[in-house]
Design a protein that fits this description.
Chain lengths: 277, 277
């Protein structure tokens, strides 16, 4: 039987490091690489990054927005990228940040978590504005399939502070409220089903991240704000093998040459290994 | 020159009523209709709803989640549905509820608001958890193109209350904070660029919705919670032609026969005309 997501992730991290590479074939990235801003340029860039980092990263995080730019043609590219990533043994975290009412969330779960879907991933990101309770059917599906759902708790950008730091009726910040809700659910679901997106640029929350019961996906590394030292301090109390750090821009900007992409990814893997358990 | 979204919407509403029909080809809906849960069933259901309501509704709101279930094949169907809706003169509100950091949000804007994109819509829904400031580049693009962005402020489901009613540092609820932020931006953008998703099932906010400066998209009508009377009271102070009410399940469940679908839609149009300006 397939191991659940958190266990698979822990084994990969203990063996291969904490690096998740963001596949972000934005207009800006394609322009930097001298590629046309179309589905063909998109495919070239996404596959080049994948190829360069496949033996350095433990996971890839395709940013769905950049594929969606080209409609169905972009999704065809994303399906190819995900299939190739699976073939080389990388874990796939689909960065979709979906979030709606419960019945609609099941539509998204069918897309990203159902066996047989062309977009099926090991884990997917969800955004909680319409309520974490509305995501419960998605957690159930993920729990059954041994997959993961990362809830955006604390994003790496400053613009999210007004809402993420607002106070709930129980006098918790929205972030603390969500971390507690996640921890509570992880006690009854397949262990580690729900993780948190927690920006590497943020401060340590009052909630003890070691009690989350699920993995952490940390965006905002490198030129997006946080160096390895900061990341190490922020997550120093977390369980070994539970923190996955996403690096996107630093690696993408080193391309398109494979060796340059790979060198930057390797440096990040090594730097993270020196600060994280 | 093309009129901006809020003006086009107002003219349509004043002429043809307040009804937006939700195109929600969920697994549940396809099962009820006796159709296979695949891209072909999806296309049948979506086009049947579109065909039945094209002279009764002023807008359609395809729920992107249900198309995304089938990956690129589902997006091909969505492109066809959007193209057909445009051909029959309906406004299209893409219900995507996207939301990320600013650079990523531009990827979504390229998908849903860029002329020439296969998914280009008249308006798109965004979710604000990563910050309304992070959506500013999207508002700018919409403002330039005479399109609209509906920000999810108050969702129709109860699960969203914990976050949507949390208090910001300025002692506003998150909803009030967002309504004020929208109103402020609408004073400098193309008039009415930013609208609010405000659940028909909710109470009237302390913020005067007549001061929003943009349209309102109200989900949660009918079997999803709110009857016409409630909708009329909730939005009675709003500008004429600024409230678009989405009805999805009541209409979908009346199908698949065209006459039944159309009859329910027509009843909703008439009921809404009797309570809204």
């Amino acid at each position: 039987m397939t191991l659940n997501f958190a266990t698979r992730l822990r084994e990969r991290i203990m063996d291969g490091g904490h690096l998740c590479v963001g596949i972000d074939p934005s207009r800006r990235q394609l322009e930097r690489w001298g590629r046309d801003n179309d589905a063909s340029g998109l495919e070239f860039a996404a596959l080049a990054i994948l190829d360069a980092v496949s033996d350095v990263a433990v996971a890839v995080k395709p940013q769905v927005a950049y594929f969606e730019r080209f409609g169905s043609a972009g999704y065809r590219v994303l399906e190819r990228v995900m299939s190739d990533a699976r073939d080389v043994g990388l874990l796939i975290v689909a960065d979709a940040k979906r979030g709606d009412i419960d019945s609609t969330n099941m539509g998204y779960a069918e897309a990203w978590l159902s066996p047989g879907s062309p977009l099926v991933a090991d884990a997917v990101t969800f955004s909680p504005y319409l309520g974490i309770d509305a995501i419960d059917p998605v957690f159930s599906l993920a729990s059954q399939g041994g997959q993961g759902v990362f809830i955006v708790v604390s994003s790496s950008n400053d613009e999210g502070r007004a809402i993420q730091c607002a106070r709930t009726a129980q006098e918790l910040s929205v972030e603390e409220y969500l971390l507690e809700e996640i921890a509570q659910r992880n006690r009854t679901l397949t262990p580690g089903t729900i993780g948190a997106v927690y920006g590497a640029t943020r401060d340590r929350p009052r909630f003890d991240l070691a009690q989350l019961g699920g993995p952490i996906l940390a965006p905002g590394a490198g030129s997006q704000g946080a160096d390895a030292g900061r990341i190490g301090r922020l997550f120093e109390r977390c369980e070994p093998g539970s923190v996955l750090v996403n690096v996107a821009r630093d690696i993408g900007d080193a391309g398109p040459e494979k060796r340059s992409l790979r060198d930057v990814a390797q440096r990040w893997r090594d730097d993270l290994a020196s600060v994280l358990a």
